[in-house]
Amino acid sequence: MANTTRLLPSLEWVRVFEAAARLGSFTAAAQELGLTQAAVSQRIRHLEERLGVTVFERQARGVSLTVQGEAWLPHVQQALEQISHSAESLFSAPRTRLSLMASASLLVLWVIPRLPALQAELPGRHLTLSTMHRWPDYAHADADLEIRFGEGNWVGRTAHHLFDEVLTPMAAPSLLTQGNDWKTLPRIAIAGPRLGWREWDQRLGTALSPAPEIRLDSHVQALRAAEAGAGVMLGSLPLCQAPLQAGQLQRPTQEVLPMTQGYWLTWQTDRPIGRELEGILNKLKPTSK
C-alpha cells in the first residue's frame, strides 16, 4: 500500500494557510487565529518546505496566492469544512430538550404567540410542547414544565404565578350591532374548571337564564364560535386580549367575574429547571403596559 502521508502537512499549517489565503494577509490571519505574525510566517514556511512549492507571493501590502496555492485552496477549504462538520455531528454536546405541557387553549392563545421570545431565551434547546387534554393527564405527565390552572398549591411541585383568571362576556361586533340586548343573545358555555354563566348571574344578582344553547370542550373552541357570531361567550380577559384588540370580539359590558384561581408555571421540586427559569417566566408573564 502506498504511503499516502508522504506529503501530508500539519493540520495547523493548513489552518494557517486557509486563513491567510482567505484574508489576504498574514497579519489578519494572525489576529483571527490568536497567533503572532511571526508564527504565521513560520507555519507557512514549514508548509511550503513540506509541499516543495511556494503558495504565497509576499508583497509590500499583504500576500497573494501563487498559481499552486490558488489551485489548492478550494480543496483545503472543503476538507476543513468536512472535518468540522463531522466533528460537530459526532462529538458535540447534544442539544438538550425542554418540554412544556399545558391545555390546548393556553398553548394556542398564550404560549405559541410567545414562541419566538422563548426561542431567543433558550438557545441550543429543543422546545417540545404537549397538550393536556384532561386535568388528570397531569398526574401521568413527565414534562419539564407545566402550566397549571389553580391556586398554586400542588404537592411536590414548585409554582410561579403567571396571571389571574378574569372572565367577562364578549361577542362578535356584528352580533352586538344588531340592536339586540346582549343579554338575550345565545350563550356559549365552556367545559372545565372555570366559573360559568350561573356564577355570572349570581354575582350580578340577575335572574338565572336558561341553559346555554352551545357548549364546547375548550376555551379556544368557544372563542372561534364567538368570533363566528354564534353567540356570546364568558371569555378569559387575559387569553382573549389579541382578538379584543384586533376588533374580532367586543365586550358588551365592563363587568367582570374574577376567579380565585389563576395560571401557574410549575415543575417538580426535585427537578429544578436551572438558570433559564427567570427568562422563561419573564416571557410567559403578561406584557407590561
Task: From the structure above, extract its key features.
2 domains; D-Maltodextrin-Binding Protein, domain 2; Arc Repressor Mutant, subunit A; 38% helix; elongated; alpha/beta; 289 residues
Provide a short characterization of the protein structure.
With 289 residues, this protein is of the alpha/beta class.
Write up what this structure looks like.
This protein has 289 residues and is of the alpha/beta class. The chain has two domains: 11-91, Arc Repressor Mutant, subunit A; 97-289, D-Maltodextrin-Binding Protein, domain 2 (3-Layer(aba) Sandwich), CATH 3.40.190.290. Helices cover 38% and strands 24% of the residues. It has eleven helices and ten strands. An eight-stranded mixed β-sheet has the order 4-3-5-10-6-9-7-8. A two-stranded antiparallel sheet has the order 1-2. The longest helix is centred in the N-terminal third of the chain and has 25 residues, at 67-91. The N and C termini lie far apart (74 Å). The mean pLDDT is 86.
Give the arrangement of secondary structure elements:
Layout (H helix, E strand, L loop, with lengths): L10 H13 L2 H8 L3 H15 L4 E4 L2 E4 L1 H25 L4 E8 H8 L3 H7 L3 E8 L12 E6 L6 E14 L2 H4 L10 E4 L6 H8 L9 E3 L2 H9 L4 E5 L4 H6 L10 E12 L8 H8 L5
Parallel strand pairs: 3-4, 3-5, 7-8, 7-9
Antiparallel strand pairs: 1-2, 5-10, 6-9, 6-10
